Amino acid sequence: MGCYLVLNSWEGSDPQNTANKLALMFKMAPQQALSIIDQVTRGKVWKFKKQVSDQQAQVAENYLTGLGFQVERAGGEAPAASPIADRVDLEDEAPQPVASESVEGADAEKAMAPAKRVAAAAAPGQSPKGLNIGFHGNGTGLLKIMFVNWLLIIVTFGIYYFWGKTKIRRYLWEQSSFAGDRFYYYGTGGELFKGALLFTVILILFKLGVEGTGQMMGPEAMMTAQTLLTFAILLLLPAIMVGAYRYRLSRTAWRGIRFSFRGTRKSATALYVKGYLLTFLTLGFYWPYFVAQKQEFWKNNSYFGNKEFKYTGTGKGIFGEYVLFLLLYPITLGIYMFWYQAAVDRYNWSKTEFAGGRFNYDATGGQWFGLHFVNFLLLMLTMGLAYPWVIVRTRQFVADHLSVEGQMQLTEVVQQAQKSSALGEGAADGFDMDVDIGF
Question: pTM surpassing 0.85?
Answer without folding.
Answer: no
